[in-house]
Amino acid sequence: MNAVFDSSDLSSSLKEGLKQIEEAQSSKDLESVHSKYFGSQGLFSLASKSIGSLQKEERKEAGEFFGRCKKEFDGAFLKKKEEVEAKEEKEKLESERVDMTLPFTRFPMGSLHPITLASRKIEAFFTSLGWSLGEGPEIEHAWYNFDALNFPPDHPARQMQDTFYLSPEESCLVLRTQTSSTQVRELISGPLPLYTASIGKVFRSDPLDAFHSPVFHQCEGLAVDEGLSVSDLKGILKALSTYLFGEADIRLRPSYFPFTEPSFEMDMLLGGEGGKWVELAGAGMVHPNVLKSAGVDPGKYTGFAFGIGIERVAMLKYGVKDMHDLVEGDERFSRQFAMGE
Ligand code: PHE
Question: Which of 41, 93, 156, 308 is paired with 217 by a 20 to 30 Å CA distance?
Answer without folding.
Answer: 156
